[in-house]
Amino acid sequence: MKRLLDWPEIARSPQLASFLSYIVERRLNGEGQSIKAYTIAVDVFGRSPDFDPQADPIVRVQARRLRSLLDQYYRGPGAQERLQIQLPIGRYVPEFAEVAVGHEPPPQTDATISAPDPAAENTAPRGHVTVSWFVLLVLTLGAIALAYSLSTLGPRQGQQNASSGAIQEPSLRVMEFQNLTGESNITPAISALAIELVTDFAPLLVVKAYLGGRGSQEQGEAPDYALTGIVRADPTLAENYQISAILTEMATNSIVWNWSTSVPREQFARSGGVDAISQELILLLGGTRGPLHDRARELLAQTDIEGQENFYLCGVLFTMYRSVQSVGLAERVRACMDGLPDPVRRNGNVLAGEASLVAEGLGGGADALMTPEDRLAYADELMDEAVQADPTSSFVWEQRARLDELMGRHDRAESAYGTALQINPANIDALAAHARHMALIGRLDAAIPAAQRAIGAVPQTQVPDWYYCVPAIAAYFAADYRKSLSHAQRCARLDVELGAIFALLSAQRSGDSAMVAQQLARVLDIPSFRQSGVMNRLAQRVTDTALLDEIGTGLMRAGVPVTSLDTSY
Q1: Are 389 and 413 in contact (CB under 8 A)?
Q2: What is the DSSP letter of 341?
Q3: Which residues contact 192 (CB under 8 A, 6 or more apart)?
Q4: Of 49, 54, 111, 152, which one has the greatest count of Cβ atoms within 10 A?
């Protein structure tokens, strides 16, 4: 165990080292029966006594990481160890196995598998075969089972793929939209729409899109989805065309999504008009919050994908983390990235995701014990490496912008957000994060439509709470304090600083004294405010002096002690 703890791969992760020490020492002390997910979570990972193993997967995730490192150690630097510490799958009690060093068991061949037992060879006369009724029964049942298996192979393969984690990025066949307008002069523009869609899907990396019957179908692979559509005269506005699109899941031949919009007729004639329609569709369909990725989200919500990790599933998992930003999901993202092959681990998108987890202090890596300053510096190094590895990734530039914003480099953050959205205007999280940043640096007028567009691109049941921070600020300055309070309370679930502040200001403005008391206590209890003073902390995020003045004045009206505004408390 000491040699394992000294091995750099484990030594750099204090949590994994503590995990290993804890389970081995308890096993050696004869306390194996007390090694449970609950005790590990509380004793090793510092979870509270009300820890729920079903809701928080930290022990399962870290056990997978430790199991992987043990296997790596005994195949590498520990290959000559005669005694191995093993962690069986599905258990947390370690086993100690003595193994032969210097040779591996011979591989099984047809000859070794079928070599007869001499004693058995003499139990029947040569040339005579004896088969018991039991063997006949087994063979008969096996034949029946095989026939049934073949008859249900297709459906079962689909079910197994959905439950095993073997889901890859979906494939989409984009069909040419049909022209039902009766005007042949716009047929070329309508044809160009399908081509634009395929082109705009390409940089997303999470959808394999191709045109019509070409692409992957040439290799005999049926697409997962088909996108079809029509363009016709708008029945309510004579000067407009109505564009409708339908997404069909091919396995079930069922419609899973539909969309319709009305556009001026001249949009098909002017430069960039078709591209604008394509971008609107991509915004709704392309990102990992869209309907093309429902199967992956369902799988990840219900299943542990240990051993089935791939780039696509890690990306969807990261989007789910961005929706709630829980410790448990951050740890699952870390574990997913750790399970990727080494070349994929060095992908710019993976590095950028890791840098964000480091900067936000989540995910249970070795950086968890760093000081905030060291953690940000480490994240900055990772992010530079990510940009260098993939300078054309919208996701990488979005994470670059978030980190710059967190470090108070607001000009650089604006530039990075702009790059992210230029590469992929359908990056919804980048759009929402940019809107929030613009609201804090004095560009609220530009922030409002961007935030509205981001919210409108996601089904209402899936809109992340932090998307509502800009609507909360906008409603406050529009003097709609009840709406501001509602949006701010939702914002506060993930952005507690902004959400709690505007919930307090709105409650004070609306005269809701009970809500003022509730939100005042919440504001004063936020750790970042306690460490440096409320306004000192906000000044790191907000560069708009007029907004800062409004907040400061409102906080004093709401009863925040003056000393708590500028000093720690």
Answers
A1: no
A2: -
A3: 274
A4: 152
Contact yes or no for 427/397 (Cβ under 8 A)? no
Question: Is residue 57 pLDDT above 50, yes or no?
Answer: yes
Q: Identify the residue whose tokens are 């929706």.
A: 323
CA dist., res. 543 & res. 44, Å (int): 41
Q: Enter the tokens of residue 337.
A: 């990235």
Question: For residue 36, how many other CB atoms are within 10 A of its CB?
Answer: 13
Distance CA 569, CA 565 (A): 9
| 425-478 confidence digits (pLDDT tens) | 889 999 999 999 999 999 999 999 999 999 999 988 889 999 999 999 999 999
Provide the token pair at 251: 């396995």
Range scoring the smallest mean pLDDT among 38-42, 112-116, 353-357, 374-378: 112-116
Return the amino acid letter for 232: R
223 neighbors 171 (Cβ within 8 angstroms): yes
Q: Rounded distance, CA 421 to CA 431, Å?
A: 7
| Residue 461, token pair as written in the block | 């049941």
User: How many alpha carbons fall within 13 Å on the CB side of residue 88?
Assistant: 7
- Residue 243, judged by CB atoms within 10 A of its CB (0-12, 13-18, 19+), counts as buried
Confidence of residue 149 (pLDDT cuts 50, 70, 90): very low
Q: Quote the DSSP letter at residue 124.
A: S
Please tell me what DSSP assigns to residue 392.
T
CA distances from residue 208 to 23, 197, 215, 425 in whole angstroms, order as listed:
44, 12, 9, 18
Dihedrals φ, ψ of 78, to 5°? Answer: -100, 20
**What letter represents residue 270's amino acid?**
R
438 with 444: CB under 8 angstroms?
yes
Distinct helix (H) and strand (E) counts, the chain: 29, 8
Q: What is the pTM of this model?
A: 0.69
Residue 457 main-chain phi, psi, to 5 deg? -85, -5
Contact predicate 292/172, CB 8 Å: yes
Each residue's pLDDT tens digit, 341-388: 988 999 999 999 999 999 998 866 666 678 888 999 999 999 999 999
pLDDT of residue 363: 66
